[in-house]
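Appendix B, Record 12. Input sequence as logged:
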Amino acid sequence: MPRTAPRRQTPLRRPELVDAAREMIRTSGLGQLSLRKLANELGVTAPALYAHVQDKNDLIASVAAQGFDELVSAFDAVDASDPMDRLFEYSRCYVDMATSEPELFRVMFVFRPGAVPMPNIDNELPAATTAWENPGEAISEAIEAGRIHPDRDPLLTAMTLWTCTHGIASVLLLGQHDGELVLPENSTELINDAIHTMLAGLSLPPVPA
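Logged structural output:
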């Protein structure tokens, strides 16, 4: 029989609920997230949670937004004047986020930035849109500076970089088992080589449709 937590003596606040949901996802995975379990841990009734979130999806979106906010903070900390160097560092930040918090990373990409069109799918998250801005600005600067081929479309280029970087992260996450992530011994070399190769290819003209 599940343990019942003592009834809380202080009012529940939304940030505490989001943090508790994030911890449950981190330890058990998104599939095990339960409002009833959260309510029990926080010492409230399950209906009381609806004073702070609309539903489970709203709570998941809040956890994802927290992750994107942290990713943006990592992007903002990048101090490189060369736009290609910034793109390299942004890609490293992205992969580092994935390997440091695999379950949070998976939750983040239940949602999409507004710049990425997905017809008939309502899963845009403003925090994801904000995270798109730093790489997008660097891509535009690199095109203007001639570092990325001028015939390349900025949006398509951003999506190409995202796809490739996400692919690197996804391959590394294959090493996760029973909540533990084991990276290959040459993971740093692999990540750096893959990102450098990806960026180098952007100097070439786009492949004809």
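The CA atoms of residues 22 and 63 lie 6 Å apart.
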